[in-house]
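Re: the request from the purification team.
They wanted to know what the chain is likely to look like in 3D before they choose a buffer screen. I agreed to run a prediction and write the result into the notebook, where they can find it.
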Amino acid sequence: MSLYDIRQNQRISKAQTENKRTARTVQESQESIEELRQSVQKLSLACQAMWQLLQTTSGLSEQDLLEALQNIEDKNAAQNCVKCGRVQQSKKPHCLYCGTPFPEEASTISCFQV
């Protein structure tokens, strides 16, 4: 067996090992995504159940829920920097990327799509 063949076999072996490692990473990622989907589904069902109970016991309307969501959205809205255009939380007084101070009324990006 020539040196070239030995080197090629080493490269093939290394590529196969990397391929197996990548396949494991993909499998783990897919499992994590499925776990997250299940968690989101459970949380969604819990929110629906709580909302139904709250509506029944308190008489709150769908409009009350939408207003509460809007209030939360307004407090946590992200905004675009007027100088660099990057998106970030509005709780910061200035852009984390370029340092530009945020104006009082900045354009916001909706976090909730109701």
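For the purification team: The beta strands are 78-80, 87-89, 108-109.
Please add any questions underneath this entry.
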